[in-house]
Design goal:
This protein is of the alpha/beta class and about 250 residues long. Helices cover about 45% and strands about 15% of the residues. The protein is built from nine helices and seven strands; from the N terminus they run βαβαβαβαβααβαααβ. It has a seven-stranded parallel sheet, with helices on both faces. β1, α1 and β2 form a beta-alpha-beta unit. α1 packs across α9. The longest helix has 22 residues.
Length: about 250
């Protein structure tokens, strides 16, 4: 049974990794999906083809979700393609950008990282609301870093993800009377380009030895949790930050 048949979803940062897995999973569950990307059109087109191969319906929209005009365009294009109602927003866009100790950080770095990881969430949440009615679901992809401060050189990233977690709780209170649920997911070590690029192999190997489940997570496992929070099987779940880390949470 497709649990999201007739629903419309926007997935930011949908070109690869968790965003790709979420886009495909929501489409498999029956949703029509707007796959947002900013830089890598080739990867976004791969995601689009995967959705189509799974029998789903989707569009691509290029938009920098740290910019208000781009976010408005993203929502408008979704409405043009699928109608005036958006049922699901997945705020997935984000990233560590790089690792810098505080003495190496400047104001431009701060703005870049915080805008990517929190301003994007704030803008998309604000601008989806004219299209979202009772029964809508907003899912924010935060991070274990929001709980534990992150690894070396990732302080601003961790702060952005923590702000996203707090915004989840605030919006759950504000939007709950409208019948809109807002939840966050806090992934730990997930097998993605993110960790291929920014996490040392020895760190990943140490997790394999110490994690209760003795492995990293996979993007499809995060996507399954997104689909649960987006659908009708979680009608009383809002304001949460759900950890998905194989039992590894160091707070």
């Amino acid at each position: 049974m497709n649990t999201l048949t007739g629903k419309v979803a926007v997935v930011t940062g949908g070109s690869r990794d968790i965003g790709r897995a979420v886009s495909v999973k929501l489409a498999q569950e029956g949703a029509k999906v707007c796959i947002n990307y900013c830089h890598n059109e080739a990867k976004a087109r791969e995601t689009l083809q995967m959705v189509k191969d799974a029998g789903g319906e989707a569009i691509l929209v290029k938009a920098d979700v740290t910019k208000a005009e781009d976010v408005r365009f993203l929502m408008e294009e979704t409405a043009k393609a699928f109608g005036p109602r958006i049922d699901i927003l997945v705020n997935n866009a984000g990233g560590i950008v790089g690792r810098k100790k505080i003495e190496e950080q400047d104001e431009n770095w701060y703005n870049t990282v915080l805008d990517l990881n929190f301003k994007s969430c704030w803008l998309c949440t604000r601008d989806v609301l004219p299209y979202m009615k009772e029964g809508g679901s907003i899912i924010n992809i935060s991070s274990q870093a929001a709980r534990d401060g992150g690894g070396p050189g990732s302080s601003i990233y961790a702060c952005g993800k923590a702000a996203m977690l707090c915004h989840t709780r605030a919006m759950a209170k504000e939007l709950g009377p409208q019948g809109i649920r807002v939840n966050a997911i806090c992934p730990g070590m997930i097998n993605t380009y993110f960790h291929d690029t920014f996490t040392a192999p020895e760190g990943r190997e140490a997790l394999h030895r110490s994690a209760p489940l003795r492995r990293e997570g996979e993007a499809c496992e995060v996507a399954g949790l997104v689909a649960f929070l987006a659908g009708s099987e979680s009608p009383y779940v809002t304001g949460t930050g759900i950890d998905i880390n194989g039992g590894c949470l160091f707070s």
